[in-house]
Design goal:
Layout lengths: L5 E4 L14 H12 L3 E5 L8 H7 L4 E3 L4 E4 L2 E5 L4 H13 L4 E4 L4 E3 L5 H8 L8 E2 L11 E5 L6 H6 L3 E7 L2 E6 L4 H9 L9 E5 L5 H6 L2 E4 L5 H6 L2 E2 L7 H8 L4
Parallel strand pairs: 1-2, 1-12, 2-3, 7-8, 12-13, 13-14
Antiparallel strand pairs: 3-4, 4-5, 6-7, 6-9, 9-11, 10-11
Helix pairs in contact: 1-9
Protein name: Cof-type HAD-IIB family hydrolase
GO molecular function: magnesium ion binding; phosphatase activity
Keywords: Hydrolase
Amino acid sequence: MNNQKVIFVDIDGTILNSDKEIPKSTIEAIQEAKHKGHHVIIATGRAPFMFADLREELELDSYVSYNGQYVVLNGEVIFTNPLKIDSLIELTDDALHHNHPVVFMDHEDMKANIPEHPFIEESIRTLKIDYFPSHDPYYYKDRDLYQTLLFCEEGEEARYEEKYTDFDFIRWHPLSVDVLPKGGSKSVGIQKMLTHLDVSSENIYAFGDGLNDIEMLTDVEHGVAMGNALTEVKAAARHVTRSVDDDGIYHGMKKLGII
């Protein structure tokens, strides 16, 4: 084992502030950590194509995406965990009858099963990304999908959770839920990543703020919740830093001796 530290960092609400911008202090902290020989790895619910510019800006080529379903180390894919297509088709047909559209997602693109819907427009817009799903109701054919977005109001996902046991459902917006392979999580993706890295457990860190970060923050030695994190996320973490809008990454790394 060496003394290299591995730092997993969420994007929304952790790297990106409330304006979906990267604070200057965050860029400095990541650069300094890398300069010291530490490995900084993105761990996000986003698709790879949703943060290509961010990876380029921060010069990071390792990431756990789709909440652990698509894992890349040093530019090479090392783990994938696609959705079960037969169950997904059944869910999609069911959702269509309830006016709940879906968006199919692989590592390259995302496609909606209906031409347009206000729930899709409103929720995707909050991500402030250049991508918007075009229409292709058969995008699931002959390809692996790592996540699907189900668009419904809060509480309406309960019927799907009960019926479709091949999937986990994680709400990320008042109008949208992530549909993931059952048991898939950032934590699982991180463990796949760590099998390729020679690092001791006491040198593993993770920064996050959302419900999809809880397992990650619990399972690593040093889970760090952002000051803007939800109460239950802070309760799951070993450490709490400042808000993302108050240089949270920089102060967290400084406090923990990473930089």
